[in-house]
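User: Fold both of these, please.

Assistant: Here is the first one.
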Amino acid sequence: MSEESKSTVNEMMAGDGAALSMPPAFVFVNPKSHRRYKKSNQDKVDGRTKGAKTMLSRIQSRKKMKEELDTQIVEAAPSETERAQKQIGQMKKLGRSKDLQKKRDEAKKKMQSKTKEMDVLMKARMSDFKKKASDQTKKLKKEETEVTKEIMTESTAQQDALDVALQVATSELNPSGESSFAKITFGDGSQQNLDNFSAKRIAACYAQLPNEHQTQFRYMLNKDAATYQSALDFAVRNV
């Protein structure tokens, strides 16, 4: 083999191997020539260009990201056990809600029943109270009537003040007119002058009073000077 041939073989030789009777793609590489080849072909790395290597790196990165994402999705997907536990939790929550609502309904029914009982009891108590008050009122009226009758009986010897007022109010005015007086003698023995103006007010007030109040009004006119004056003031204000 010539020197030129040896140099060519030592540098790099690749092919189907027919020239040297060797298997295809068998490569003889001279380290020095290989370094020189790499230096002059910087764009190629282990037989691939930098662009090809970058693209392969992106493909691998995307593949890795896809695998990680698939793993996360699989991990995030609930298992049958988790679903069952969640369903059991919801069932318990619903059961507690139903129990709470049931207790509220029972408490509401008890409150309504208690309210009805209180209403019935209050009605009964009010009825008893009204009946008792009515009996007490009747008793007081009876006692008042008896006392009034006793006082009026004691004063029969004297002339009734109301009768005197009616006589003065219906009498013809004398020349002295409204300033004319009549004498009223009270149950305690004291006396009071009665003019025509006051007599008319007393008569008019007595006429418009209800029957149950006429007796009390007459009693006040005859008791003493103080009660007479109170009755007269009442008559003047309301007539």
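And the second sequence with its predicted structure:
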Amino acid sequence: MQNTNINENRLFLGYDLVNLQKGEEIIFKVKRHPVGIFYAMLISIALLSLFVFFIFYELPKILNQETMHVSLIAAAILLICFSGLIFAFNFFYSKIYFGNGWVLTSDSLTQISQQSLFRKQSSQLSLANLQDVTAEQNGLLTHIFGYGTVKCVTAGDAKNFDLSYCPDPSYYAKQILNAKEKFVQVHKSRLVQNSTDMAIVPNLDE
């Protein structure tokens, strides 16, 4: 995956990608796997199917002929309202679901959490405080559809970062570990360079 230049002027889940430090590069941006929405849609379709079955197959059995016509009209109106509620639920759920993601740069990992329709939170973790990264895929479906959970363990009292329904979790976990390793190497080189520069500064008092 190619790095994105820091001058690229666009947002990712409301996070400002250009608001980075000098020399900081974006390594990846990832959102949740669509399979989570698929599960929600399956549940919605199942509920709607049960409602339709009750209205058109079970309801006529318990109604008499005199009131059946009016009752079926009322049931059809209820069906339309129920379908609208399910559509609205899936729409808002998808907005919240896809509002979660990660942005990894050469210096930090940012977690963007859509906690409700009107509440979003972003947390940033310096790679210096990153201790360990694991990728989990539990169950057959996670391997079939290629998703799982990536967990980042932090140092000290900092909150751990978890991204559920992450696509190809092993790949992204490896990217984070590689970024951490490169971060350590770069900062070690800077410390050595600074120490060398200080050692060769001439003493002007002599």
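Residues 37-96 form one domain.
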